[in-house]
């Protein structure tokens, strides 16, 4: 039995190498966090101004917390609940809150991944439709159920299957995005997109709402505050240099997110569409593009197939967080935990699926899925990341984290603990200032 703050290490399966961890972690977040969510957040929040705020938040706040969460998972060698439970008495409750947040996010991830699967199938059939036509019936619900079954099928095979899937996915995904950017650069809307993405309106940086969305997206992009990092970190090999691995993952996530903007917005402006379209931006824009292009059919097949695979990897990671917690805390076998979480996802995800069917389920005047994303994907993710970092930095001895980081100098340890300890006070001060 360990004392609070002294995270217990136990035997656990491992990624085969640091490279395998990097590929798997990048694949986990890159699918929906960057290809789907980042472009639509940029479109809704001022283009270049949002990107600048995002980069500042990522470098100053998010990367240190990312390294901290991976290190904590590496120390504890267990699920998110197991890791936080060893910090203090409040930790176990908070760990379950993180798992609940991840379950909620994953439930609507599965719906969006169903859209990508449906579009991939339509592309192969040569019948790409616009978003309204695609969701005119119950496609969102049926494809959601299919994706949930496919994710369960892979998760039953364990960590090695996730690693192999990620190793093949990432290089092909990047190559596809680069190909589509080259095509986009020849569109008439390229100049307007360039201005939108590069020329910031600095007056927008005084908008606290923009900063809130930018920080939330930075947390979301690298999966901070959602249990992914502690769970994936628990499988990390002993010789891994955690800051280096996290910097590579963070840089990869950011590059792909920005590239996704350069891929989508030239088409948006070329066709006179609204960049603030919302969560269905990629699904409203690209089908029109592929239908009109000379090589649109094969490019549509390639893009939506890989979009599905990338989104699929996000679902795998999210469900893995929940499965690991349930398996360890309730002493269930892996298969029993997988099927338990499958049932939970069906219950939680069905309302999001129904929001884009004739039922049109809404909350606060917006589709249920959009409400879940804007509330859980921004406000709650930020709160989760800040509270988790504070728990680790105030209750776990610094030398323990330094050892888990795999570094000899105190630079990274000092930076991590400075951010983790100070950030809660900054957030509280910010909230009071905005309220008063």
Question: Which SSEs are present, and which pair or pack?
Answer:
Layout (H helix, E strand, L loop, with lengths): L17 H27 L3 H29 L3 H6 L3 H37 L5 H4 L4 H17 L3 H26 L5 H9 L9 H14 L6 H6 L8 H29 L10 H12 L3 H34 L4 H21 L7 E2 L2 E2 H28 L2 H8 L5 H25 L1
Antiparallel strand pairs: 1-2
Key attributes of the depicted protein:
two-stranded antiparallel ribbon; 436 residues; globular; single chain; mainly alpha; Hydantoin permease; 17 helices; 76% helix; 2 strands
Folded structure, characterized:
There is one protein chain. The chain is mostly helical. It has a single domain, classed as Hydantoin permease (Orthogonal Bundle). Helix content is 76%, strand content 1%. The protein has 17 helices and two strands. The protein has helices at residues 18-44, 48-76, 80-85, 89-125, 131-134, 139-155, 159-184, 190-198, 208-221, 228-233, 242-270, 281-292, 296-329, 334-354, 368-395, 398-405, 411-435; strands at residues 362-363, 366-367. The model has no long low-confidence stretch (mean pLDDT 84).
Uncertain runs are none
**Category by helix and strand content:** mainly alpha
The ordered string of helix (H) and strand (E) elements is HHHHHHHHHHHHHHEEHHH
Q: Work out the helicity level.
A: over 70%
**CATH architecture descriptor:** Orthogonal Bundle
């Amino acid at each position: 039995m360990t004392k609070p703050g002294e995270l217990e290490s136990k035997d656990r399966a491992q990624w085969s190498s640091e490279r395998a961890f990097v590929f798997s972690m990048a694949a986990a977040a890159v699918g929906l966090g960057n290809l789907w969510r980042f472009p639509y957040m940029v479109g809704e929040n001022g283009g270049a101004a949002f990107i600048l705020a995002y980069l500042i938040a990522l470098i100053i706040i998010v990367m240190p917390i990312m390294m901290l969460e991976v290190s904590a998972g590496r120390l504890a060698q267990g699920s998110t609940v197991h890791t936080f439970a060893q910090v203090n008495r409040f930790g176990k409750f908070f760990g379950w809150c993180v798992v609940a947040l991840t379950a909620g996010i994953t439930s609507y991830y599965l719906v969006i991944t169903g859209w990508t699967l449906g579009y991939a199938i339509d592309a192969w059939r040569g019948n790409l439709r616009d978003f309204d036509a695609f969701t005119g019936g119950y496609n969102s619900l049926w494809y959601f159920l299919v994706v949930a079954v496919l994710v369960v099928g892979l998760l039953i095979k364990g960590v090695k299957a996730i690693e192999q899937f990620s190793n093949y996915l990432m290089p092909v995904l990047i190559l596809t995005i680069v190909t589509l950017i080259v095509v986009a650069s020849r569109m008439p809307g390229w100049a307007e997109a360039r201005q939108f993405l590069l020329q910031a309106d600095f007056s927008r940086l005084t908008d606290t709402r923009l900063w809130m969305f930018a920080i939330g997206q930075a947390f979301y992009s690298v999966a901070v505050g959602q249990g992914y990092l502690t769970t994936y970190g628990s499988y990390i090999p002993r010789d891994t240099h955690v800051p280096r691995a996290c910097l590579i993952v963070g840089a990869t996530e950011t590059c792909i997110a920005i590239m996704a903007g350069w891929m989508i917005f030239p088409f948006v402006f070329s066709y006179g569409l609204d960049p603030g379209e919302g969560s269905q931006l990629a699904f409203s824009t690209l089908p029109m593009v592929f239908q009109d292009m000379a090589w649109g059919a094969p490019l549509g097949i390639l893009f939506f197939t890989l979009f599905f695979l990338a989104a699929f990897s996000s679902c795998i990671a999210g469900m893995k967080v929940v499965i690991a917690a349930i398996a360890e805390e309730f002493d269930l076998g892996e298969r029993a935990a997988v099927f338990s979480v499958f049932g939970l996802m069906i219950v939680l995800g069905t309302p999001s699926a129904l929001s884009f069917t004739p039922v049109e389920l809404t909350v606060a005047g917006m589709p249920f899925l959009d409400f879940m994303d804007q509330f859980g994907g921004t406000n709650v993710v930020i709160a989760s990341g800040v509270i988790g970092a504070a728990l680790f930095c105030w209750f776990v001895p610094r030398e323990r984290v330094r050892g888990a980081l795999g570094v000899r100098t105190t630079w990274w340890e000092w930076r991590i603990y400075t951010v983790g300890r100070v950030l809660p006070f900054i957030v509280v001060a910010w909230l009071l200032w905005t309220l008063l």
